[in-house]
Specification:
Elements lengths: L2 E12 L2 E12 L3 E5 L6 H8 L7 E6 L2 E2 L5 H7 L1 E4 L11 H8 L12 H7 L1 H5 L10 H13 L5 E4 L8 H16 L3 E5 L3 H7 L2 E6 L2 E7 H6 L1 H8 L2
Parallel strand pairs: 3-8, 3-9, 6-7, 7-8
Antiparallel strand pairs: 1-2, 1-4, 4-5, 9-10
Helix pairs in contact: 3-6
Length: 236
């Protein structure tokens, strides 16, 4: 099966400090995959490079058969990659509805596209808060909005950085249920999060990064069977 996303020998540096050292990552259309590792190991930098937010020093990034490293972030977004960033980054002066309307696009002509109305079906709480500004939402509501904002671009690949970080347990469960529903519908998903058990249930394939290098890759079954990997690389 051909890869939807293929990251090869990726190197990224911030000034004189190199952060990634030859990271490889590949995932197919319709697959759910994860990036795992302790804080500060290069996970977010990898996502930023994929989305064009961090310049690469070496290697390549291909998406849907095209080489995209060096593209501007807006072009990468139009090509079909949507990022739910760490910290949500909702616009404080836009209402929930304005967020969703402003970002709505169906460039690929999806037969049943994600629209603001479909997002409200997915997250009824957002419909109740449709006229509220971004800075008037709780952390959980902002995360729902950030996911909805990404979905209405109708991406081929949905990327989530720290999908449930800082959320209350009940809200976390709602986000996990949302991701499971998206995955069941065939949405390609790449996610960072610390809840390994939830990620094993959600994803097909996992990549662990340690100090900017890939130290393990494998299936959910393989990761679930070897808790020594968790203790060594994930601090669990």
């Amino acid at each position: 099966m051909s890869a939807l996303l293929e990251v090869s020998a990726l190197e990224v540096a911030y000034g004189p400090s190199q952060v990634l050292f030859g990271v490889d990552l590949a995932m197919a259309e319709g697959q759910a995959a994860t990036l795992l590792g302790r804080n500060g190991m290069g996970k977010t930098t990898t996502l930023r490079a994929i989305c064009g937010l961090s310049a690469i020093k070496g290697g390549s990034i291909h998406f849907a058969g095209e080489r995209i490293d060096g593209w501007r972030p807006d072009r990468i977004g139009r090509a079909g990659i949507a990022l739910v960033p760490e910290g949500r980054q909702c616009f404080p002066n836009l209402t929930v509805d304005e967020h969703l309307v402003a970002f709505f696009a169906n460039r690929r002509g999806v037969r049943e596209p994600w629209t603001p109305a479909r997002v409200y079906e997915l997250f009824p709480r957002l419909k109740e808060r449709a006229r509220n500004l971004g800075n008037q939402l709780s952390g959980g509501e902002q995360q729902m909005l950030a996911i909805g904002r990404a979905l209405v671009t109708n991406p081929r690949l949905l990327i989530l950085d720290e999908a449930t970080e800082g959320l209350a347990p009940l809200v976390r469960e709602e986000i996990w249920a949302c991701l499971a529903r998206l995955r069941a519908a065939g949405q390609s998903i790449l996610v960072i999060d610390k809840y390994v058990e939830k990620l094993i249930a959600l994803a097909d394939h996992h990549t662990i990064i340690e100090r900017g290098q890939v130290v393990w890759q494998g299936s959910s079954r393989e990761l679930d069977a070897d808790h020594g990997i968790w203790q060594r690389y994930l601090g669990i």
